[in-house]
Write a structure and sequence with these properties.
alpha/beta, Aldehyde Dehydrogenase, Chain A, domain 1, Aldehyde Dehydrogenase, Chain A, domain 2, 2 domains, 7-stranded mixed beta sheet, 6-stranded mixed beta sheet, 23 strands, 37% helix, globular, binds NADPH dihydro-nicotinamide-adenine-dinucleotide phosphate, binds glutaric acid, Aldehyde dehydrogenase domain-containing protein
């Protein structure tokens, strides 16, 4: 097992990049099978780490140890748990540069954006650390004269977490922080493409005083095996997953036997609507962030841009001017706004969506091809003349492609926007207050950005309806997913 010098030499604290996995209370450098896997930099193809490829026995061991550790952790006061999370927050901020370097190298997003993700991940740790002291219950007036009723919240127990490659730090931090805050233990499995950020988080958590065993990071390329063990092992009481809707469905089926409590943050197909009365410059800025951040590889990325006929051409021209200023390249290079896609499958999907749209009559207003850098880079793209029969209308592209659909009326665009099995994020721009309420209430989505393209914050409930998932992450509601309510009825009160 190794960490390549390409990565280690870029870090101020090289010990934050580890080639060991955290299985329960032990950092392990080899799997029982002796198998390993490589982590590569998607911008260059360089191997940056070789990690142990863990098997079922190791996942089960991590769960066994988590089960014991959880009981002791849950006995700590909220204030004690808050103290650990506060220290973890401070460490994440202090080490944000190194954490960003690890993230950019394994995932490819531009370094400043990666640093933004670290601070975003840390904000969940800070928020839920504060919430640890406020896991309140209720008292309810008794239903009989001698009865008193109390409701308390208790941790669900051991939580399995499976996280994706597109936000290797923040997606794990926003699961781990509420779980640990309320007294759960967590066994996590990051995407095999981006395990180093998760391991760095675990190193800092240990330094912050989180007892070993409370948080594990399993490194494995056999995601299906890990998911199955999480679902079959009766010590795991909750499974939280961020990723594709398809895998979400598999986990839901697998979890049925033990009625697994599930948190699912799945795919989206976000509409981004610009009405004739919108502030066009603001709408273009919103589209830039909502569509192009992380090279379009975000589940809340605008996937379908609906522009009202009266401003369609003006919006397309303004957007093209801004997108034309974007710079594609290695995430460590100065001024780069768009890194590589995560892998060849992602690149193929983007190419296929563009080719399908063009074959059905769309025009490439900008980009449309792999970028000059070759490899996994794709040009920031704008398609005009897009219609509902094209793949970009129904599937998540997960790439830097903005398809512009033209619409005439409010009723028409609401119907188009809601015509999907997904219901995660949606966005629209208008200055008309009555329309703002009408449209926001009519959109069948868990989140609506109104005159903004950026809705993510630790203080708000992030999550979807329809086939975009179950549960909410962040905010006071984020605690609900990791606690069970217990009602106590006290009789004989004379
Ligand atoms: N909601 C979101 O934020 C995300 C949505 N997506 C959507 O999904 C598409 C495909 O991306 P992809 O990375 O393949 O997403 P996946 O859903 O396959 O991967 C997400 C996580 O699930 C794991 N996983 C894969 N298969 C299983 C399984 N059978 N049981 C348990 N865990 C599993 C992966 O592990 P491993 O990577 O090690 O195989 C990873 O940790 C994207 O193009 C995008 O549309 C993708 C990522 C995030
Ligand atoms: O793609 C995702 O699942 C993560 C969305 C990042 C965010 O919180 O904005």
């Amino acid at each position: 097992m190794t960490i390549s010098n390409i990565l280690a030499s870029k870090l101020k604290d090289a010990s934050l990049a580890t080639d060991k996995a955290l299985v329960g209370d032990e950092w392990v450098s080899a799997s029982s099978s002796g198998k390993t896997f490589e982590v590569t930099n998607p911008a260059t193809g360089d191997v940056i780490a070789v990690l142990p490829n863990l098997g079922q026995a190791e996942v089960a061991r991590a769960i066994e140890i988590a089960d014991k550790a959880q009981k002791a952790w849950a006995k700590k006061t909220g204030k004690e748990r808050a103290g650990v999370l506060r220290k973890l927050f401070d460490l994440m901020v202090a080490n944000a540069d190194d954490l960003a370097t690890i993230l950019t190298m394994e995932m490819g997003k531009p370094w400043p954006e990666a640093r933004g993700e670290i601070l975003y991940g840390a904000s969940y740790v800070e928020w839920f650390g504060e919430e640890a002291k406020r896991v309140y219950g209720d008292t309810i007036p008794g239903h009989q004269a001698d009865k008193r009723i109390m409701v308390i919240r208790q941790p669900v127990g051991v939580v399995g977490a499976i996280t994706p490659w597109n936000f290797p730090n923040a997606m794990l931090a926003r699961k781990m922080a509420p779980a640990v805050a309320v007294g759960c233990a967590m066994v996590s499995k990051p995407a095999a493409q981006t395990p180093l950020s998760a391991l760095a988080l675990a190193i800092l958590a240990e330094r912050a005083g989180l007892p070993l065993g409370v948080f594990s990071v399993i490194t494995s390329t056999d995601a299906a095996m890990v998911g199955k063990e999480f679902c079959d092992n009766d010590k795991v009481r909750k499974l939280t997953f961020t990723g594709s809707t398809n895998v979400g469905r598999i986990l839901m089926r697998q979890g049925a036997d033990q009625i697994m409590k599930l948190g699912l943050e799945l795919g989206g197909n976000a509409p981004f609507i610009v009405f004739d009365d919108a502030d066009l410059d603001a709408a273009v800025e919103g589209a830039m962030i909502s569509k192009y951040r992380n090279a379009g590889q975000t589940c809340v990325c605008a996937n379908r841009l609906y522009i009202q006929a009266g401003v369609y051409d003006a919006f397309a021209a303004k957007l093209a001017e801004r997108v034309g200023q974007m710079k594609v390249g290695d995430g460590f290079a100065e001024g780069v706004t768009t890194g590589p896609l995560i892998d060849t499958n992602a690149l193929k999907k983007v190419e296929e969506h563009v080719a399908d749209a063009v074959s059905k009559g769309a025009k490439v207003a900008l980009g449309g091809k792999p970028a000059d850098q070759g490899g996994l880079f794709f040009q920031p793209t704008i398609l005009t003349g897009v219609t509902s029969d094209m793949k970009v209308a129904v599937e998540e592209t997960f790439g830097p492609v903005a398809p512009l659909f033209k619409f005439e009326t409010e009723e028409e665009v609401i119907e188009l926007a809601n015509n999907t099995e997904f219901g995660l994020a949606s966005y629209f721009y208008s200055k008309d207050v009555a329309k703002i309420f009408r449209v926001a209430e009519a959109l069948e989505y868990g989140m609506v950005g109104i005159n903004t393209g950026l809705i993510s914050t630790e203080v708000a409930p992030f999550g979807g309806i329809k086939q975009s998932g179950l549960g909410r992450e962040g905010s006071k509601y984020g605690i609900d997913d990791y606690t069970e309510l217990k009602y106590m009825c006290l009789g004989g009160i004379a």
